[in-house]
Amino acid sequence: MNAIPAGDTAVNPALRAATGHESADLAAFAAALRYEDIPAAVIDRTVDFFVDWAGSALSGGGQRAVGAIERFAAAMGPQDGRSEILTARRTTSPLFAAMVNAAASHISEQDDVHNGSVFHPAAVVFPAALATAQHVGASGRDFLAASVAGYEAGIRVGEFLGRSHYRVFHTTGTAGTVAAAVAAGRLLGLDAKAMLDAVGSAGTQAAGLWEFLRDAADSKQLHTAKAAADGLTAAFLAAEGFTGARRILEGAQGMAAGMSRDADPKKIVDRLGSRWTVLETSFKFHASCRHTHPAADALLGLVEAHDLSPEAIAHVVAHVHQGAIDVLGPVTDPKTVHQAKFSMPATLGLIAVHRRAGMAEFDAYLSDPAARAFLDRVEMALDPEVDAAYPRRWIGKVSLRTGDGTVLEGRVDEPKGDPGNTLTRAETDAKARRLAAYGGMLDAAGIDALMPRLWSIADRNAVGRLV
Amino acid sequence: MNAIPAGDTAVNPALRAATGHESADLAAFAAALRYEDIPAAVIDRTVDFFVDWAGSALSGGGQRAVGAIERFAAAMGPQDGRSEILTARRTTSPLFAAMVNAAASHISEQDDVHNGSVFHPAAVVFPAALATAQHVGASGRDFLAASVAGYEAGIRVGEFLGRSHYRVFHTTGTAGTVAAAVAAGRLLGLDAKAMLDAVGSAGTQAAGLWEFLRDAADSKQLHTAKAAADGLTAAFLAAEGFTGARRILEGAQGMAAGMSRDADPKKIVDRLGSRWTVLETSFKFHASCRHTHPAADALLGLVEAHDLSPEAIAHVVAHVHQGAIDVLGPVTDPKTVHQAKFSMPATLGLIAVHRRAGMAEFDAYLSDPAARAFLDRVEMALDPEVDAAYPRRWIGKVSLRTGDGTVLEGRVDEPKGDPGNTLTRAETDAKARRLAAYGGMLDAAGIDALMPRLWSIADRNAVGRLV
User: Fold this and answer.
1) Rounded-to-integer distance, Cα B335 and Cα B108, Å
2) In chain A, which among 200-219 make CB contacts under 8 A with chain B?
3) What is the rounded CA–CA span in Å between residue A362 and residue A63?
4) Is the pLDDT of residue B159 over 50?
5) Which of A113, B15, B60, B148 is most buried, judging by how many CB atoms fall within 10 Å of its CB?
6) Residue A354 burial by CB count (10 A; 0-12/13-18/19+): exposed, middle or buried?
7) Which long-range contacts (CB under 8 A, 24 or more apart) does B270-277 make?
8) Which positions in chain A touch B4 (Cβ < 8 Å)?
9) What is the pLDDT of residues B25-48, one digit of tens each?
10) What fold characterizes domain B13-282?
């Protein structure tokens, strides 16, 4: 663990070489960001992600782990307030609305992702921003500006913490706490100094470990729930004058010193105000861990081009980056639907059998012998080209051997949902409607009423209740 | 960052060599621990620490950082409930009672400490245990058994995470989350399996970085507040069936893999049921960071033995362990009372001038020129003997040079408050009364009424309200 007390030998020379004050620069940017300063294309894409997120959050309504967190919120929090728990159709204080909505956002594995940071911004930013906006009566434009600030901050913190961090830590939990603090802090009107306090209090709460993957435990939902709630806590405390460390990201006993070996402080402030990472963020198409998507798209291309039946496929090698092996490797025999979403053989099995790996296909996976047969037919192999391009680009490569010994090679350079292969607004609308229906909290008329409210968020004088 | 994915080269061979299931053994011990199985001396000492803790918690009442957290709790939590916020004299849900009481417990730097783990158990265990006990109507005996379980678990987790962890992470925040989960989980009646879920959900939330020390920021209070609240959250979620990682402590992507280089899994289960770490825990005598105490006692011995006036002392070298340099080194010119408590020159200056470094002396420190003059007269030096004995023993050594060039050497082998140099019950009672009076929430009659309720906690059929 890379303790770097003053004067000690740094494990990471970049941290020692840092002479600026990157945490403060990030906080100042977030505090000052106005709706008017954000390019229209960035706002439009943020609205797309907001609609996409609302679908994901509503889809989590009926799921066990989310229900446990909702019952906890009901026991610990107030029974009324101005902030809305989407899946429970009730209101409470912002803390618990953010917590439950964030838990619900990430469970279907359909929420967005930024490739370079391997960070899922929507699942932590929108819950904190929505709960705070509803609490303070913020406008739709302020809500969107705060959400952009959260994306821009969280993604840069994720990039800063780097690949070594992601090998053990769930970046959406750690960087996500800072992202949520920035979004909530922007809506509370924190100035640059108070925003830096919020970042400091967020960073010192940041947590989330991948160990749960081996056991198919519920921790992923806890990570997003706590990132949103803890970040919101940091912002509200800063508004009360509660102070935080000024260099929680890059300092000698800060996040990178404790939780990264390859952190580069320059990434915290990379082209703030000119590079918009919102535009680099990807929609998820398949309902599984993003690390499965490049290979899934590459396999889908082969299956469709050669019209392969599942029985014709004897063996598939997914050529992947190391991060995929770290996250997916521990899942050897998926026992739950959620664990299946972290299994390359499960995901490729569904693609081979159904040419689709959506919510319905995963829900039926445990009793789908044709797809499960691929547990023995799929393996992952580290690929130097794919690994070198990662995380900036997520290349998909598969080698497929048929029963008669033919070998076919499949490749995609941008998986479906990436900025160069994105969803149309019609596709986003349809995806969100499917997810909302899946959650079962709203009937068709309710979804028809909801969708225009989501798409027109920028025009609302006060965000108010959505569902 | 010591990522140890399956098959990778382990940075820490001890983690790879672990073949048992230490997290499960610890959880099983905590779930099964009964009051009747705990030696009377352990129970008695736990009562001592409970009384000592109540004084610390009440002392935090008037302090700014605690007030900010209490206002946050009032805004986010319910206005009634069965769990008591000691300093606010109101009740709420267990989550917020644990949060505020834990924030208040640690701010005066008078709460207990376990030397070997450098962990402050009272500040995180009692807030979680008391809030849960009041919520479920537990007896005093169950409250004490749960508290013992929390101490025994948290101390062992702190020892397990080791010195490399403590260099960057505030162990009371990280191990404290697990300790609080165990204490709350015991009161919720979790069985061994559910207790392991609670440990898993606690460990994946564990956080707290030392970076705030440089800025005298308020994070220390956030760390105890969140450890108690997050641990309690983990326990209540486990009671709802929410699952956690089964090897969150020792696993390949668990706490030690992410946050330690020298973790030894055997320490998690070291003599569970026969070694009682409660009996190894120290009271704090001076109102400052424990790392200042050995040198303070050594200097006090010299000052008293030679009846030295402050003016007679030209220079003092405190011969310390590396951990003292890591934690105290960043504070070069204390700007706040709380920061002064993390300054070796400030603490030794008060000892030289007042022969005492209590709450009152620190409160007056910033306008105490005689004590502040020692900022230039005190230095720390790494001492091989002291460092080798640490953290098992905290030896105090100082070299003092007088104005006429005489050099005096002072030494203590056990600072005041350590098990071999402990406080009597009368001293503990008097200390708790002083601290409660300092907080200003109770008048003398209120304190007189409170103290017998604290000392007789074991006899209460239901813990109920204390204040």
Assistant:
1) 16
2) 200-201, 203-219
3) 14
4) yes
5) B60
6) middle
7) B270/B156, B270/B159, B272/B25, B272/B26, B272/B29, B272/B152, B272/B156, B273/B29, B273/B37, B276/B38, B276/B39, B276/B41, B276/B42, B276/B148, B276/B152, B277/B114, B277/B116, B277/B117, B277/B151, B277/B152, B277/B155, B277/B156
8) 168
9) 999 999 999 999 999 999 999 999
10) 2-methylcitrate dehydratase PrpD (1.10.4100)
Given an 8 Å threshold on Cβ–Cβ distance, is A212 in contact with B204? yes
Instruction: Specify the pTM.
Output: 0.93
The encoded tokens of residue B233 equal: 């959250």
Alpha helices in B33-170 (DSSP H): 40-59, 64-76, 94-105, 121-136, 140-166
> Nearest Cα to B323, choosing from B406, B388, B270, B255?
B388
Find the length of chain A.
467
CA–CA separation, B374 vs B131, rounded Å?
A: 43
Looking at chain B from residue 54 to 73, which residues have their Cβ under 8 Å from any Cβ of chain A? 64-65, 67-69, 71-72
Q: pLDDT tens-digit profile of A57-85?
A: 999 988 999 999 999 999 999 999 999 99
End-to-end alpha-carbon separation of chain A, Å? 46
Min Cα distance A131 → chain B (Å) is 12
How many residues does the structure list for chain B? 467
> Which residue in chain B is spatially nearest to A207 when comparing CA positions?
B205
Give the nearest chain B residue to A98 (CA atoms).
B76
Q: Which residue of B has its CA nearest to A196?
A: B217
**Amino acid letter at B130?**
L
Judging contacts by C-beta atoms under 8 Å, the chain B residues touching residue A228 are: none
Could you read off the pLDDT of A401-440 as tens digits, one per residue?
Answer: 999 999 999 999 999 999 999 999 999 999 999 999 999 9
The verdict on a CB contact (< 8 Å) between A329 and B5 is: yes
Tokens of A350: 């569904």
Of A69, A165, A214, the CB nearest to B251: A214
Is A214–B254 a contact, with Cβ atoms under 8 angstroms apart?
no
The reply to whether CATH 3.30.1330.120 applies to domain B290-416 is yes
In chain B, where the domains are located: 13-282, 290-416
Count other Cβ atoms within 10 Å, centred on residue B379: 11
Measured CA to CA, the distance from residue B34 to residue A263 in angstroms comes to 47
Within 290-329 of B, beta carbons closer than 8 Å to A belong to 325-326, 329
Assembly ipTM: 0.92
Is pLDDT of A5 > 60?
no
* A118 has a chain B CB within 8 A of its CB: no
Domains A13-282 and A290-416 share a fold: no
pLDDT attached to residue A11 = 54
A172 phi and psi, to 5 degrees? -65, -30
pLDDT in tens, A130-150: 999 999 999 999 999 999 999
Whole-angstrom distance, CA of residue A391 vs CA of residue B161: 31
Alpha carbon of A414: minimum distance to chain B alpha carbons (Å): 27
Q: CA-nearest residue of chain A to B197?
A: A217
> What are the CA-CA distances from residue B28 to residues A18, A272, A380, B176, B193 (Å)?
46, 50, 37, 18, 8
Would you put residue B417 in left (φ > 0), alpha (ψ -120 to 50) or beta?
left
Q: Mean pLDDT over all residues of chain B? A: 94
Are B201 and B234 spatial neighbours (Cβ–Cβ below 8 Å)?
yes
Q: Which helix (H) or strand (E) holds A83?
A: strand A83-85
Contact A453, A466 (CB under 8 A): yes
Which residue among B71, B200, B217 places its CB closest to the CB of A200? B217
Structure tokens at A173: 């939990």
State the smallest CA–CA distance between residue A252 and chain B in angstroms. 7
pLDDT at B131 over 60: yes
Nearest chain A residue to B81 by CA: give it.
A76
Chain B residues within 8 A of A223 when measuring between CB atoms: 204
Pick from B109, B112, B119, B117: nearest CA to B338: B109
